[in-house]
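2024-03-11 09:14:02 INFO worker-7 job=invfold-0412 stage=load source=structure_tokens
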């Protein structure tokens, strides 16, 4: 089985050492992002994903945030081609309100605004398909845990604080990506 996995299309990946990506899921959720990933050993890469959204969609909703997500990946055969396992961390700040968040995160975010930070970690699995020697598509999914700490405000626009601190422990999906990948070298 392991030999069969290694024989999947990897012919153009041998010299690849640096990739730049964008996560299409995050783009669809109005979270502009970029990730840089570099080869550090024969089957290991390190990457850093950065998400930044400084603008509010309108006066009634908030979706401002920044997030950093470093990841170490072990490729089962050839880096930047085929299957990989990863370990990732995440940290960032957020200011969200007037929106419905999935997975019961920050309950009441549709009626109120939450401003705070998060830290977390998880594991991931994914696959990278080579389209050409420079372009590829990558899919990955991660699960893990996160700790969120936030203040709750009465509404998306007003500054009246309702609750000083809300701590939230979260366990579940921590990463979902369909990425377009460009190999620099």
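2024-03-11 09:14:09 INFO worker-7 stage=emit residues=185
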């Amino acid at each position: 089985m392991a030999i069969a996995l290694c024989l999947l299309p990897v012919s153009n990946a041998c010299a690849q050492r640096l990739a730049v990506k964008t996560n299409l899921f995050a783009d669809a959720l109005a979270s502009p992002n970029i990730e840089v990933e570099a080869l550090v050993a024969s089957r290991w890469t390190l990457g850093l994903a950065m998400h930044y959204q400084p603008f509010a969609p309108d006066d009634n909703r908030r979706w401002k945030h920044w997030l950093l997500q470093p990841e170490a990946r072990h490729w089962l055969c050839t880096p930047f081609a085929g299957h990989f396992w990863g370990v990732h961390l995440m940290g960032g700040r957020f200011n969200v309100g007037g929106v419905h968040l999935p997975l019961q995160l920050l309950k009441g975010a549709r009626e109120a605004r939450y401003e705070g930070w998060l830290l977390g970690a998880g594991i991931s699995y994914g696959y990278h398909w080579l389209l050409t020697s420079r372009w590829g598509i990558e899919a990955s999914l991660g699960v893990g845990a996160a700790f969120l700490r936030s203040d709750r405000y009465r509404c998306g626009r007003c500054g009246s604080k309702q609750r000083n601190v809300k701590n939230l422990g979260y366990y579940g999906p921590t990463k979902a990506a369909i990425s377009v990948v460009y190999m620099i070298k």
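2024-03-11 09:14:09 INFO worker-7 stage=report msg="The longest strand covers residues 161-183."
2024-03-11 09:14:10 INFO worker-7 job finished
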